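Continuing from the previous page...

OK, I double-checked the sequence for Methyl-accepting chemotaxis protein against my notes and this is the correct one:
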Amino acid sequence: MLAQPHEEERALTDIAQTLAPIGERAGRLGVAIADIVGLIADLSAASQKQADDTRTVMGAAADMGAATAELDTSMDASLALAHETRSVIDSSASVLSGVVDTSARTMHDLGDGALKVRETLENVEVTSRRVHAASAAIGQIARETRLLALNASVEAARAGEAGAGFAIIAQAVKSLADQIQGFSGEIATQLGSMETVLGELRVRAKDNAEMARDALEQTKAASEATESLSRLVGSVDTLVAGIERMHAPVKSNGQSFAAVQMGLDALSDSFDQSTSHLGKAEGRAQSILSISEDFILFIAQSGVETSDTPFIKLCTERAAMISDVFSQAIGSGKIAMGSLFDDDYRPIPGSNPRQVMTRFVALTDACLPAIQEPVLDFDKRVAFCAAVDRNGYLPTHNLKYAHPQGDDPVWNAAHCRNRRIFDDRTGLSAGRSTKPFLLQTYRRDMGGGQFVLMKDCSVPIMVNGRHWGGLRLAYTVA
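Thanks. Re-ran it with the corrected sequence; updated structure tokens here:
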């Protein structure tokens, strides 16, 4: 027996009432999974950041360990060199001290000898002057004796034969006087030469004495240098002791750095393992999220009304309007098919974040605001409504997100979202999906560590049977 119409309606109503809670629960499940996916993504990013930071610290620790090892080696070499230097300086100081002492005694003796020579020369000079005076006196006597002999000869001649003997004596006296005067002249000459030589010796003796005094002063300076060298030996001893004291902590630091390096290696391995596990967990969570989205699509296509149904219907209607506008533009010759599907994205110079242009931007700027802007007033939860091409490029955004860029990249990122490519999972999926609609759930980063759970409903935009992209309608989760 065939069922009555009212019975069929009742059955459909019962099915709808049964599926409606399932749809709501599926929606809440999708939201929860999206939140979990976001948290896993945050943990994965944090783990990756920690892994990167750990690698940075490992690099720094390795550098410090290498520097410490190099310092240890340098200190070993410095310590050996200091010991060697100390030995050489000590030996040199001993030798130099002996040489300086010997030289000082020698110079002192030479100085005393030079002074004594000068004194002796002065005495000789005095004696020479006395001899010179005596020689002069003898010469004077000789001259007087010759005169006397001459007078005696004259008197002897007057006396005749009686004075013959006296004449002989007078002649002998004259000859003796002549010899004495000759000897006196020769003595004077020799004394003059001797005095000249003595004068030169006196000058040289004076110079030698002064040189001896200077040498003695220099010897005193050398003695002081020897004392300084001895003090330097003490300073080197102190330096060696200081290096030895520092050497032990440096070696200890080297061992500590090695231990730190081992700990950091283990920590890095742990972070890598955690990042790998989180990556797998994120992939599985994404798979579950995709299953949840497919399940929501199935429920919506079954005709069951959910809280998302009004947004899906609105997005479907607006996407159809955009398809018609694009098709009419091609039909009227406003734009060529190649230009509408242009994916030669040309960067806008100086933009930050980067904005790009294509040949269809003029068309989307002219026709899309009239379709997209009214959607913002549909529900207070609506965040934006904008069309993207199959690569996630958003040419014409809502007016409140389409301000001219300024000098602040952070402000630009929030207020200048047109002309940008959003090639994240949600953006690419919205642009490339050819399903009747796609309902995605994701976390939107509001800055400052604040996140808002969003739903993104996208419907394909088809132009003359060709997939151009999709219309995205994003709204917050109640």
